[in-house]
Amino acid sequence: MCTRATGRKACTDYDECMLEVTFLPILFAGIVSTVIAFVWYHPRVFGSAWTKMTNLSPEMVERGKKRIPLMAFFGLLANMGVAYVMNYFGIAWGVYDIIGAVELGFWCWVGFVAPVMLGIVLWEQKPFTLYLINALYWLVSFVAMAVVLVL
Q1: Does pLDDT of 6 surpass 80?
Q2: Which of 66, 81, 114, 125 has a C-alpha 20 to 30 A away from that of 20?
Q3: Pick from 91, 78, 106, 74: which is nearest to 149 by CA?
Q4: What mean pLDDT comes out for the span 119-148?
Q5: Is the pLDDT of residue 146 over 80?
Q6: How much of the chain is helix, strand and coil, in % rounded to 5?
Q7: What's the predicted TM-score (pTM) here?
Q8: How far is CA 3 from CA 16, 20, 67, 121, 145, in A?
Q9: Which value, in Å, is the radius of gyration of the alpha carbons in the chain?
């Protein structure tokens, strides 16, 4: 908010620059991430490959379809939790433009997702392609959520 990139004068008082975390941007960021997940894991995108690599049987997929509304709701809540924390990071780091949001999403992904998810390859001996599908979903999701939060 108080950066040259947004054309505003520099703040001398920290409280002047601090923004509050509000509900609507968190909700919108959660919705965007959930929609990205539905598209990303659709059978015509990466869903078929993901299903094969996770060893889900057709019966398991059919059972899962019955629970989609419940899973989508909890997925939305989880994504909103991520957006809430990311919003705090953005405020603390002074991210108030789109370039800063892309950087915020990328560095949060590098620090919190990419190394943690690598465990499925290292310890669970899953294919590296599965890691790429899941980790890159989170990269796209983090960047999209961060951009939504600064708009």
Answers
A1: no
A2: 114
A3: 91
A4: 96
A5: yes
A6: 75, 0, 25
A7: 0.83
A8: 12, 17, 46, 41, 21
A9: 18
Residue with tokens 């796209």: 140
- CB of 151 within 8 A of CB of 24? no
Structural domain spans, the chain: 20-150
> Quick one: tokens of 121?
């390859």
Q: Residues 128, 49: contact at Cβ < 8 Å?
A: no
First to last CA, the chain: 11
Q: Give me 32's structure tokens.
A: 């965007």
Give CA 104 to chain center in angstroms: 11
Number of CB atoms found within 10 A of residue 146's CB: 27
Distances (CA, A) of 59 to 42, 53, 65, 67, 74: 17, 16, 10, 13, 22
- Whole-Å CA distances, 86 to 11, 123, 137: 22, 28, 17
Closest CA relative to residue 133, chosen from 27, 32, 36: 36
Candidates 114, 151, 131; CA nearest to 25 is 151
Q: What is Dmax (Cα atoms) for the chain?
A: 61
